[in-house]
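Please decode residue identities from the backbone states below.
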């Protein structure tokens, strides 16, 4: 049986590599010179192959921190790794810090380590992390074969490197967090998804957890998005450092026509239902999730809708999404008829609010516009 049997590569966002005995043969701290051991060509080739599929690589090594300083002197190797951890701390703690620095779930990591002890320590303390020995790497790569790769995926490693620059600038910035966000000049545009944006929307549905309202599967999302009365929206963001790309997706269902409060019989749907709202964890804490949601609510009201609803399937991971929906004034309804495409009505709920009166405003530091206006 392969070590990757039952392994779903869709959820993998970063492969974390040990150094001694994994990335290279020797033990770096025992080197007689400041030169690092020569990396195994097969390991570097695997890292590059993963990067081409949008999978990040990092380092977790129980060694002297000076090894990382020496690695910085070899940019052609160092550039392959994001948020590396080299210290004497437990491997499990290193993985937690990597996940935190990258803004991803710990369960989205895979550890490659030659030490059975280190793998066992991680398996015991982080049971959601898959651990592999170096000889298992070909099977890991094979698990990704045949999987579609979006343009966003191919740019992911570059964008995470840009994120490291943002974080470093934020640490140096002399001012408040809000002042820094204003200085970043972030701009969000929202519009109906084009055909070439659909694969990225499906990817967000599959890969996001923290900012995912319902866990709608990509297959179900594709089916619903192509059906009458449904429209898929995407959000793109840029700042002074570059483009984030497509960071949000929302499916809008306009098929629900409840009674209007004014008892008229106009053709526009009264309710905009959102079976899925999903955003990249890379934009967490920057107001983009709120801005996307609020812009959808504004568009719904302009289209004549009187109520806005979101399907919510609470999980251990999506607390941020639940808080956001409450802050937007959405509250649980008794109507389960609009639970569109969720796993079951039993584990999902519908949160709704009227679109009368003042709607929440987007964060002051974020410029938000409709893509149609931005392209005009």
């Amino acid at each position: 049986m392969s070590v990757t049997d039952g392994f779903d590569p869709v959820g993998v966002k970063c492969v974390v590599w040990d150094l001694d005995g994994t990335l290279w043969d020797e033990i770096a701290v025992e080197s007689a010179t400041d030169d690092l051991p020569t990396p195994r060509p097969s390991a570097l080739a695997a890292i590059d192959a993963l990067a081409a599929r949008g999978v990040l690589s990092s380092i977790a090594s129980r060694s002297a921190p000076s090894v990382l300083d020496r690695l910085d002197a070899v940019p052609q190797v160092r550039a392959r790794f994001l948020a590396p951890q080299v210290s004497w701390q437990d491997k499990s703690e290193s993985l937690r810090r990597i996940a935190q620095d990258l803004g991803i779930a710990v369960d989205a990591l895979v550890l490659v380590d030659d030490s059975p002890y280190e793998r066992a320590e991680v398996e015991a303390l982080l049971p959601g992390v898959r651990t592999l020995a170096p000889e298992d790497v070909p099977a890991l790569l094979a698990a990704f074969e045949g999987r579609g790769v979006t343009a966003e995926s191919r740019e992911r490693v570059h964008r995470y490197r840009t994120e490291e620059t943002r974080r470093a600038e934020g640490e140096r910035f002399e001012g408040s967090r809000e002042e820094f966000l204003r200085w970043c000049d972030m701009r969000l545009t929202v519009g109906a998804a084009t055909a070439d944006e659909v694969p990225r929307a499906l990817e967000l549905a599959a890969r996001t957890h923290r900012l995912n309202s319902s866990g709608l599967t990509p297959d179900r999302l594709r089916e619903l998005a192509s059906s009458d009365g449904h429209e898929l929206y995407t959000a793109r963001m840029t700042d002074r450092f570059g483009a984030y790309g497509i960071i949000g997706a929302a499916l809008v269902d306009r098929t629900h026509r409840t009674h209007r409060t004014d008892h008229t019989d106009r053709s526009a749907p009264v309710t905009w239902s959102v079976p899925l709202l999903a955003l990249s964890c890379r934009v967490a804490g920057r107001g983009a999730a709120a801005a996307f949601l609020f812009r959808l609510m504004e568009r719904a009201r302009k289209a004549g809708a009187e109520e806005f609803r979101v399907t919510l399937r609470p999980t251990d991971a999506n607390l941020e999404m639940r808080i956001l929906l409450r802050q937007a004034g959405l509250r649980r309804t008794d109507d389960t008829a609009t639970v569109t495409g969720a796993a079951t009505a039993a584990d999902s709920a519908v949160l709704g609010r009227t679109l009368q009166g003042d709607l929440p405003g987007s964060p002051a530091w974020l410029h938000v516009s409709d893509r149609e206006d931005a392209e005009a």
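Observation: The longest helix spans residues 156-172.
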